[in-house]
Specification:
Rossmann fold, alpha/beta, four-stranded parallel beta sheet, single chain, globular, 2 domains
Length: 306
């Protein structure tokens, strides 16, 4: 074999290998997931329902931490520099950090998933004690602080899902149709979830539609399903002795036998009240990842513990 023939064969093999690598790299680029951030775990569930395998969803507020006081970790900030979008939801820590995120990553699309939602005031324990005859599902005057827990209402999650859809379509317009299809499928599952929760709660009598919690996270859930939460805390703090006594009297009068708590807050006062009324403390997590299953679990807890 002459040198020229050997050179031509080698050149062909090199070109073929380069073409194969180029095609492989192009294919990898096509299937690369869009890196996005969300504030809390339930949002990860929502974005993954709509984005599917096309998104890599990172959560800012880690399990056990509070969205009110969270401070991002250095490694999160480093990764955020590569993100395409940040899906905000209106929790308190965002008020300080969203501006910093935008400065860190000028190309970051910040999507306010709570856009278009009229937020209710946070329930206050004092208001309920003053008007304990208020019917479940009715609106209290509240504290004036807007309730950020909009992800605990199936109806409001559909609004959030639409905002997520718009955000994903903006950063990845090539897969807009895929996102739309997933969005409509998710909305149908939300409708089924809402109907199932209503069926679970239907046996509750009017008097039994009040439940006691330490932190008033469940206001939207209560409003949607004709319930009333009775918060124990006073502006994020444990209640005083006088308020505790009044809460115990209210619980006995209303036949409440369970106090719901969440791991982000103290359960001390809840345990005191539970002992006084011969009831018990039950953990509910408003920040659980599996959102649909979690709301069903909450509804079943309302039934089984009354």
């Amino acid at each position: 074999m002459t040198f020229n023939k050997l050179f031509k064969i080698i050149l062909f093999l090199v070109c073929f290998a380069l073409c194969q690598n180029s095609a492989r790299a192009e294919k990898t680029a096509q299937i690369a997931k869009a890196l996005v951030f969300v504030s809390i775990l339930p949002q990860k569930y929502f974005v993954e329902k709509i984005g599917g395998d096309l998104v890599d969803v990172q959560v800012m507020v880690m399990p056990g931490a509070s969205p009110a006081t969270y401070e991002p970790k250095p490694q999160q900030m480093i990764k955020l520099r590569q993100a395409k979008a940040y899906f905000a939801i209106g929790v308190p820590f965002e008020q300080v950090w969203l501006k910093k995120f935008a400065m860190l990553n000028p190309g970051l699309l910040i999507v306010h998933t709570d856009a278009g939602i009229k937020k209710r005031p946070m329930d206050k324990m004092e208001d309920i004690l003053h008007d304990h005859h208020l019917k479940p599902g009715s609106q209290l005057k509240g504290s004036g602080i807007k309730d950020p827990h909009v992800w605990l209402s199936p109806g409001l999650v559909k609004i959030q899902a639409e905002n997520i859809l718009k955000g994903l379509a903006k950063i990845d317009p090539n897969h807009r149709d895929v996102y739309k299809k997933n969005f409509y499928r998710f909305c149908k599952s939300i409708d089924k979830l809402e109907q199932k929760i209503r069926e679970i709660l239907d046996p509750l009598k009017l008097k039994k539609r009040k439940f006691m919690v330490f932190h008033p996270s469940w206001g939207y859930f209560a409003r949607d399903f004709g319930l009333q939460q009775i918060p124990i805390e006073v502006e994020g703090k444990e209640p005083g002795v006088r308020d505790l006594q009044r809460l115990m009297q209210l619980a006995k009068r209303e036949g409440i036998k369970v106090v719901f708590v969440q791991k982000q807050f103290s359960a001390k006062s809840a345990r005191v009240i539970a002992r006084a009324i011969g009831g018990k403390v039950v953990n509910l997590d408003p920040l659980a990842y599996d959102w649909e299953d979690n709301l069903l679990r909450v509804a079943r807890a309302m039934i089984s513990e009354q």
